[in-house]
Amino acid sequence: MVRRLGTTMAAAALAAVAVVGFQAPASAAPNFQVPFKCGVEVTAATFSGHSPANSVDFQKDGITGMPVLASAGGTVTRSENEGDTSYGRWIELDHGNGWRTRYAHLSSQAVSVGDEVSGGGKIGEAGATGGVTGPHLHYEQILDGADRKVVLNGKAIPYYDHTNVTSKNNC
Fold first, then answer.
1. Which residues form the M23ase beta-sheet core domain (predicted)?
2. Domains within the chain, CATH numbers bracketed
């Protein structure tokens, strides 16, 4: 009886070690920054029914033509122009460890697929391309293919609200 109990406990302990041993480590997010020049204040708008749900629309009077900066360093994986539909002109950056960011409705793109971009590097200009009703920058943070709630400079953007944020990007 004691022998059977000891064998059962040893098997349970080995099973627990095996489960823990095969878990993927958590991927720490890059320290994403507001994708505009240092000191620029924009409104981060989040709302129910947005697609994807956790994306943010950055709004500001006169935003059209404003430089859009990489919120963290990475490699350009997409640089698309869908004309008057969907995202219009948009860029996606791969930051490693499953993290990507997407920037949409740009008036122009300053990078191409394969380009390495440093954090704070210019990737395009804000605009109103695609299926939009007005100028803004649509922004997403994506982990392993799923959109995540946006965190900028270590602080979560409130959902469903309009929150003023000031860029500390490349300050």
1. 56-142
2. 40-167 (2.70.70.10)
